[in-house]
Design goal:
The complex is a heterodimer of chains A (590) and B (73). With 590 residues, chain A is an all-alpha fold. Chain A contains 19 helices and no strands. Chain A has one domain: Cytochrome c oxidase-like, subunit I domain (Cytochrome C Oxidase, Chain A, Up-down Bundle), CATH 1.20.210.10. The longest helix of chain A is centred in the middle third of the chain and has 35 residues. Chain B has 73 residues and is mainly alpha-helical. Chain B has one domain. The chains are: A mainly alpha (590), B mainly alpha (73). The interface between A and B is medium-sized, with 39 and 30 residues. The structure holds protoporphyrin IX containing FE and copper (II) ion. The site of protoporphyrin IX containing FE (HEM) has 28 residues of chain A, from helix 3, helix 4, helix 15 and helix 17.
Chain lengths: 590, 73
């Protein structure tokens, strides 16, 4: 098997050994979080379905917080910084400016994670007063130990410094190559990090100005709606922060693995610019049922959300076109016959394709979440975890795992321990998620809530319009177990790869796009312009809602009253008209 | 006729299983048809199993031949 790998080209490790060490460290941090997160995931999947109860129901929120935070903060973001370091160094073809600086931000992220995880796990130890059972959506009124918020803050600062590292590399490169266009991977990294800077404004204010001082006892009241809104200011764009590493891999690595070339560099750039612009001014779509935010603002958020579908649809087109090109290069023919010519036995390829397939399904359930009226049907039911286990839990997680099968040899000069196990792993994930997510969606439609150890508290019976609740529970539990097995297979496969012999010349150069950067309008590379517009859009989307929340509830609570259904000025103009209309009708109808 | 590779069978049958099984939910939710869960699961496994066997012995399969570098990275 090793001989196929040998292309004679140097690997990333050969060219940049110092950077490769950081990337490996970041990826390992990510995998440890994934493995721990999977343990908690399994515990809660078995617990809430009453299949096997290893914990007390009162500890459920501790488990759920650990699962959420480890998965969507630690696993995804550690992978992201590792991948982005690789992509930056690779695409600008130069080492980082200061490897000590690079290790510093990585160290900060580790320290922050450890603080937050200690605070969460403290919830299992009744003897301490440390706990953080606040779920990964840590807004008020639930309160965590200051260690948790402090850890989050340090972690986020680490990511900011990581972004600065990429920008630093880019500037140094640009100084030496003033007339060159930003390479595609570098462009994707930079736009994503700019989006992150915009998004984290919300969380930084929420944590540093409100939640941390509140948990330190500096003040005893807080405006819950304000911290919720600031949370979701960050909470939507963070989903694109999870997704962008997967997109980067689909755009720049998948075509090469498929044996072809990226269909279009300009389309890729357009997509990342659109995400920079549109990711943040939509967060209120998570607050459709929050009283205290006028319906008009929610409608604006919904409209912006629907626009956000565009870059994802563009991605679906570009990725499929690139893969088809690869298949035809490999001799595939026919309308759909080319599908056969793809390297399905390669776990990196198959994993990413299965992830993309599930993402399509997740996109559809996401549209339902995004619709303001139909959202009421599924809000806070387990439908919602059903949705995001398809998106972040598969489109992202499975892509990152699959890509690791390709990337790891580039970082270690060793081949993967077992490709067949890798292939089985991605298929088991797909089947497991098919079962778990399907059961979650259906249960959600029957009204079964999320985030509870006892969905059928006190014997409450949900009415199943077909099948039965216990059958769905079983399906959920089996799916969760398969996912757990799959995760363990992945982590062991990577760990065992350390025992395979060192190879040389196994570098895998990435192919050039069919439509190259020369077809991209120069303006796309004007990052200052896009960053500026993104900030303006955020101000437009959030200034009025935040002002009205603070106006009603004050900076520090005591909370807000429900508001009328329509934005006030609109109501004010409509009401007299309606009054006259009613009077007119009244005078006609006896 | 070329046999489908074991990898191909595994991937194909994984996807087939999810599709066939989820049709049960679609039937239940959209058409209001409540199929028997045990029977449906057995049927699903049978369809997937038979497809796998048929692919493995070349009864159904893929033509024309895929390129030889099937497992190149
Ligand atoms: C290893 C397999 C996994 C299993 C068995 C699993 C299981 C579950 C279950 C049953 C819930 C719902 C609990 C409830 O609402 O009562 C849940 C929630 C969640 N899962 Fe997973 N999951 C897995 C993997 C993942 C992955 C890979 C991610 C993301 C990368 C993820 C992210 C989340 C998040 C964010 C929540 C919501 C937590 C909350 O409500 O605060 N999970 N998971
Ligand atoms: Cu969102």
């Amino acid at each position: 098997m090793s001989e196929q790998l040998e292309s004679g080209a140097p690997t990333f490790l050969d060219k940049f050994p110092d950077e490769a060490a950081v990337v490996r460290a970041a990826l390992w941090s990510s995998f440890i979080a994934l493995a721990l997160g999977a343990v908690f995931g399994l515990i809660q999947a078995l617990h809430r379905t009453d299949v096997l109860r290893l914990i007390d129901s009162t500890d459920y929120y501790t488990v759920l917080t650990a699962h959420g935070v480890l998965m969507v903060v630690s696993f995804t973001i550690f992978f992201l910084v590792g991948l982005f370091t690789w992509a930056t160094v690779r695409s600008f073809d130069r080492g980082v400016e200061s490897i000590r600086y690079t290790w510093t931000w990585y160290g900060l992220m580790v320290a922050g994670t450890l603080m937050a995880v200690v605070a969460i796990l403290g919830g299992f130890v009744p003897q301490t007063d440390i706990s953080a059972d606040v779920l990964f959506t840590f807004y008020a009124p639930m309160q965590a130990h200051p260690l948790f918020y402090g850890g989050l803050a340090i972690f986020v600062i680490g990511t900011w410094l990581a972004g600065a590292d990429y920008i630093w590399t880019w500037r140094a490169w640009a100084a030496e190559n003033p007339d060159e266009r930003i390479p595609l991977q570098g462009f994707m990294v930079l736009t994503t990090m700019l989006m992150w800077y915009v998004a984290t404004i919300g969380i930084a204010i929420a944590v540093v100005a409100f939640l941390l001082p509140w948990s330190l006892g500096l003040f005893d009241q807080i405006n819950p709606l304000l911290t919720r809104t600031l949370f979701w200011f960050w909470g939507h764009p963070v989903v694109y922060f999870w997704l962008m590493p997967a997109y980067l891999l689909w755009y720049t690595v998948l075509p090469t693995i498929a044996g072809g070339r990226l269909f279009s560099d300009p389309l890729g750039r357009v997509v990342f610019v659109l995400f920079l612009l549109l990711s943040t001014p939509v967060g209120i779509h998570h607050q459709y049922v929050d009283p205290g935010i006028a319906e008009g603002f929610k409608t604006i958020a919904m409209t912006n959300t629907m626009f956000l579908l565009l870059p994802s649809l563009l991605t679906a087109f570009t990725v499929v076109a690139s893969v088809e090109h690869g298949a035809r290069q490999r001799g595939g023919t026919g309308l759909l016959g080319w599908l056969r010519a793809l390297p399905w036995r390669n776990p990196a390829f198959t994993g990413m394709m299965l992830a993309g397939l599930m993402f399509a399904a997740g996109g559809f359930s996401g549209m339902i979440n995004a619709g303001m009226n139909i959202n009421y049907l599924v809000h806070n039911t387990i439908w919602v975890p059903g949705h995001f286990h398809l998106t972040v839990g598969t489109a992202v997680a499975l892509t990152l795992m699959a890509a690791t099968y390709w990337l790891w040899p580039q970082l270690t000069n060793r081949r993967l321990y077992s490709r067949p196990i890798g292939l089985a792993q991605v298929v088991i994930w797909f089947v497991g998620m098919g079962l778990m997510s399907n059961a979650m969606h259906v249960q959600g439609l029957f009204g079964i809530p999320r985030r509870t150890a006892e969905p059928q508290y006190e014997g409450f019976d949900f009415v199943a319009s077909f099948g039965s609740v216990s059958e769905l529970n079983l399906q959920l539990a089996i799916g969760g177990t398969l996912l757990f097995i799959s995760t363990m297979l992945f982590v062991t496969n990577i760990a065992l790869s350390a025992g395979t012999p060192k190879l040389s010349g196994i570098g895998q150069p990435l192919s050039e796009p069919l439509s190259t950067v020369d077809d991209s309008p120069e303006i796309l590379d004007n990052l200052k312009l896009w960053f500026g517009i993104a900030l303006v859009l955020v101000v437009l989307a959030y200034a009025l809602p935040l002002a009205s929340i603070i106006d009603r509830g004050g900076l520090l609570g005591p909370g807000v009253d429900p508001v009328p259904m329509i934005v006030e000025p609109v109501a004010a103009t409509i009401e007299p008209t309606l009054g006259r209309l009613a009077a007119a009708v009244g005078s006609v109808v006896p | 006729m070329r046999r489908t590779t074991q990898g191909g069978i595994l991937v194909g049958c994984g996807v087939l299983f999810v599709i066939v099984w989820e049709i049960r939910s679609a039937l239940g939710l959209l058409a209001g048809v409540d199929t028997n869960p045990q029977l449906y699961m057995l049927l699903t496994l049978a369809v997937v199993g038979l497809t796998a066997v048929a692919l493995a012995i070349g009864l159904i399969g893929l033509r024309p031949e895929p390129p030889a570098d099937e497992d190149a990275q």
